[in-house]
Amino acid sequence: MEENKETKLCYAVVEEDGNPYENKVHDSIEEAVLFADEFVKSRVFTTVTAYEKVPISPSDVSLIDVGDLLFSLGKRLDDSYGFEGADVTDLLSDDEVKALQDKIDKVLDGHIKIPYYEAGKLVEKITLTKDDLKKYL
């Protein structure tokens, strides 16, 4: 397999349990091998996997949840403003909460580009021998 010139794939050295070494993926086979340097030196064969890169969107990792926001608003009205038992969670219907959440997610995704990605679909398994590894180490 050729190196990932267009960075559409990510690579990981695979441990015995089948998971990426230290759960990390990299932009190239070389980066993956160098990251797992001590691990691969102890192996006769090393498996490197290539995955599709999946961009991480801000809405995937956002801590903004409209339901939690409404609950916190009620708690703040109670704690800070003395409105005992204030509850605003029922002020919006489920559809309104979902619509508001969708708007927030759309704004986040439209304005913030996260420069990180996660491993997607497995594309290929590559077995490297000790001789193959010499070109990366």
Task: List its traits.
disordered N terminus; 137 residues; elongated; alpha+beta; 21% strand
Summarize the structure.
With 137 residues, the protein is an alpha+beta fold. The chain has helices at residues 29-35, 37-41, 58-61, 66-81, 94-111, 130-134, and strands at residues 9-13, 45-55, 117-129.
Quick one: how many beta strands?
Answer: 3
Largest sheet: 3 strands, antiparallel
Overall form? elongated
**Structural classification:** alpha+beta
Order of helices and strands: EHHEHHHEH
**How many separate helices?**
6
User: How much helix, percentage-wise, in residues?
Assistant: 40-55%
- The portion of residues forming beta strands comes to 15-25%
Q: What is the averaged pLDDT score?
A: 86
| Cα distance spanning the termini | 18 Å
Instruction: Record the strand order, biggest sheet.
Output: 1-2-3
Provide the low-confidence segments as ranges. 1-5
What is the C-alpha radius of gyration, as a whole number of Å? 23 Å
